[in-house]
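Quick one: structure tokens for this chain, please?
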Amino acid sequence: MILYDEVITEYLDNKSTEKYSNHWVFNNIEPNEYLFKQPSYEDNEIVKNIYNEIKVILEDFNPLNEEIFNNLFPDYNKIVKESKVLLVVGCPEMYDAMFMEYDNDDYIVFDLINLSKYLKYGYSINKIVTDLLTHEFVHRCIKEKFPNDNERAFTEKLNYITFDEGFAHLLAYKENIKDHDFSNNFYKEKYEKSKLKLKEAISEQDKEKQKSLLQDADVGSYWDKYAAIAGKLYLAQHINELDDIYNKGWKNIINDILNEKEYKL
């Protein structure tokens, strides 16, 4: 992996944000918006520790569910090696890890202050970064076969998000995902709620509401990201058919989800 850490080194040196507050990343978090949040220097030591650990992890990274990775993405090792990882501070709170395209290059972006919140809940840096890198590398690998296009129509964008985020959320959820039990009522209720929201969203005609629905599809609290969760739990029900679903592609995944009458686990 190729590491870009100029923003972090500026931050850790307690220098003015002037040098990096206009970094391209803050103009690309959301379309046509500049999103920069003044970082707190109270987090300096925590960010330094996370930064040092991330550098070690990046040197020898293996994704969760590596067997599935190998099946779905045969060239993933090459993709990982060539991937660009950008470490920053200054993103709004909900943006801890992102996959971005800029100037014809792809970047995996981590905001280290936003990552630090996980430490307060007892998670280790190794677990956090491995989970998030797995998630972001799914996006990177999917894009190799199914390029994204921001000019697509609303329904196409929503199908792509459901497919792309569904795979990313599933493979990064837990190690040995094939052995995880998704049959309890918690998952069933989350799936039905997300599926209902997806059904309502795909029928929306109002352009402004469509913009909001696309954002809510994969941004916000984990279980409220309706397209990501509907995609994830649909794939979990078809865990032994992931290759077929992946190779079929993203264009009709919402229809496939909505046409299933009941939760299959």
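Strands lie at 2-4, 84-88, 97-102, 105-111.
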